[in-house]
Amino acid sequence: MKVLIVLTSHDQLGSTGKKTGFWLEELAAPYYVFKDAGAELVLASPLGGRPPLDPKSNEPDFQTGATRRFEADSEANTALSNTIALNTVDQADYDAVFYPGGHGPLWDLAEDKNSINLISSTLAHNKPVALVCHAPGVLRHVLNVDGNSIVQGKKVTGFTNTEEEAVGLTNIVPFLVEDELIKNGGNYSKGDDWESYVVQDGLLITGQNPASSSEAAKILLKALTK
Predict the structure, then answer these.
(1) What is the dihedral of CA 21, 45, 200, 139, to 10 degrees?
(2) Are 134 and 20 in contact (CB under 8 A)?
(3) Per-residue pLDDT tens for 64-107?
(4) Whose C-alpha in 30, 135, 156, 208 is 20 to 30 A from the C-alpha of 188?
(5) b/e per residue, 141-180, with b = 16+ CB within 10 A?
(6) Best CA proximity match to 83, nearest among 112, 117, 46, 55
(7) Range of the domain at 92
(8) What is the longest distance spanned by two Cα atoms in the chain?
(9) CATH number, domain containing residue 23
(10) Distance of alpha carbon 23 from alpha carbon 53, whole angstroms
(11) Tally of domains in the chain
(12) CA 44 to CA 47: how far, in whole Å?
């Protein structure tokens, strides 16, 4: 069982001068769900090398058992420092793909042709794809074989407009995940803000926020073992 985890390479929060990147819990929690189940993990990003960490995600308030375990794990940190470039990835080498969020993916992965092709090709080959928090936004340009949006008519979730409002970035992000999923025909639903909420529609698994990361990974594992 081989799982590819795709991370952002984007580190600028719009024109604010502040840093962004991937959200640590959204990598760490799924990483250990997969690792503890015996999966082989490969990390990728558009530029390769060490992807940028959203500095906020490593503040004390956002640390968890999984993030502390990851920080102390030399093997995990070596993997993080040496992500492979997304343009070298072939979906045929993997059984499933997982996308952590953070705000970074809204700028790069959402527009990245390699990411778009990876998702459409993985799903077309009957393999599951899971995305959490802001990462469902990277589905915005992914199409089915029939040319329609990959989310059209599908049950999906992702970071809510009210959660974005709460972090004060509604007018900074290039688009709102909730609005984009609805605009593309997704059957969008959500749970309470900041609580775990995951939706599965066939091979497509989406989680609402950081708290949903572990559950999304567990559902991806179940999809793999069916």
Answers:
(1) 80
(2) no
(3) 999 999 999 999 999 999 999 999 999 999 999 999 999 999 99
(4) 30
(5) bbeeeeeebbbeebebbbbbeebbeeeebeebbeebbbeb
(6) 46
(7) 2-225
(8) 46
(9) 3.40.50.880
(10) 6
(11) 1
(12) 8
